[in-house]
Design brief:
single chain; 349 residues; mainly alpha; Na+/H+ antiporter like fold; 15 helices; transmembrane; AbrB_dup; transmembrane helix; membrane
């Protein structure tokens, strides 16, 4: 795409994103700052392919969301995980098991290759799953279609659930105002730490952990200016939406109906777990759904910051599951890939 055409494309994307965000905000749709840019990027990318955001925008977006979540997690993540580790472990295991079964089913039906099926079905950070899939040798483009299709399903499901419950936006924080300076230090530290650990997909979790540690140590609470939040949410939404201009367009379109159906099934299974969580422990339905939802960690974090929910519980559950996926994902993908290769050789014979 020529520079002039790119400039026009970015201008159109910016204008449509602003308009969509305003409409969603007026309608009272939660996570309007994410949904507006995300849907606009999907539409614009279909007409004007070639718009690509640099890698640093994803890192910046994750760092900002990490600061927002850290500020919302009064008391910190560690106490929640330590006090309720059997519960969080069970939640992580149930979601990963459901994801693995669905991924295996997609591979058995020949919808996608085995490694793509596993990584595309695994819950966790959407960007992290794509990066890990690419490192594992899977087709990252097809994984991205699966992951982000599920993110969209989960985002709209959470929005619909919040609207049906009459949940409005989260109340503005009171008391400790926090510090923009601390937010800057925490964000930079998270980016540097993830870079040093060669874990670019871990920027959100590391930033969140550092922010929580700062709060526990009495150093200060990060405070992100609203304008910075808008920019970060917009960049994340654009990155998700623009991913749908995959070069593997034909394959993506062929598999999309079954992938979307699989996403709905997985979301429904997680909804059953959320219902059990609500009935057994009295956790409000919206918090239970976000804690168990198979969407990306980034999108769940953004939605949680926009709604009156138990953010520490949600992020503790999501973080526990993300860590479990980081451990079981690679061997599970390797096992399924080997099984698929053996099955292919048997079929040839």
């Amino acid at each position: 795409m020529a520079d002039a055409a790119k400039s026009v494309g970015w201008t159109i994307l910016g204008a449509t994103s602003a308009a969509a965000t305003i409409v969603f905000h007026v309608l009272g749709v939660p996570a309007a700052l994410l949904l507006g840019p995300l849907l606009s990027a999907i539409v614009v990318a279909a007409k004007l392919p070639g718009l690509v955001l640099p890698r640093w925008t994803a890192v910046l977006g994750q760092a900002v969301v990490g600061c927002l979540v850290a500020a919302a997690m009064q008391g910190g993540l560690a106490p929640f995980l330590a006090a309720r580790w059997p519960l969080f472990g069970a939640l992580a295991a149930s979601t990963i098991l459901a994801s693995g079964v669905i991924g295996y089913g997609l591979a058995r039906m020949g919808v996608v290759p085995g490694t793509v099926a596993i990584w595309g079905s695994m819950p966790g950070g959407a960007a992290a799953m794509v990066l890990m899939a690419e490192a594992d040798g899977a087709d990252a483009r097809l994984v991205a279609v699966m992951v982000y299709a599920r993110v969209i399903v989960v985002t709209f499901a959470a929005t619909a659930l919040a609207a049906s419950m009459g949940a409005g936006p989260a109340a503005a924080p009171t008391g400790q105002a926090g510090s923009i300076f601390v937010a800057g230090i925490v964000g930079i530290s998270g980016i540097v730490a993830s870079s040093a650990a060669r874990w670019p997909a871990g920027t959100l979790l590391l930033t969140m952990a550092i922010g929580v540690a700062f709060g526990l140590a009495g150093i200060g609470t990060p405070r992100v200016p609203p304008s910075v939040s808008v920019v970060a949410f917009t960049l994340i939404g654009w990155r998700i939406g623009l991913t749908f201009t995959s070069d593997a367009r034909g394959a993506a379109l062929r598999m999309l109906p079954r992938v979307a159906a699989a996403s709905l099934v997985l979301s429904s299974l997680c909804g059953v777990v959320a219902l059990a969580l609500h009935l057994a422990f009295g956790i409000d339905p919206l918090t239970a759904w976000l804690a168990t939802s198979p969407g990306g960690l980034e999108s769940v974090a953004i939605i949680a910051t926009a709604l009156p929910v138990d953010r520490p519980f949600i992020m503790a559950a999501q973080a526990a599951r993300f860590g479990a996926v980081m451990v079981v994902g690679p061997p599970l993908a390797t096992w399924l890939a080997r099984r698929e290769r053996r099955r292919s050789r048997s079929a040839i014979r």
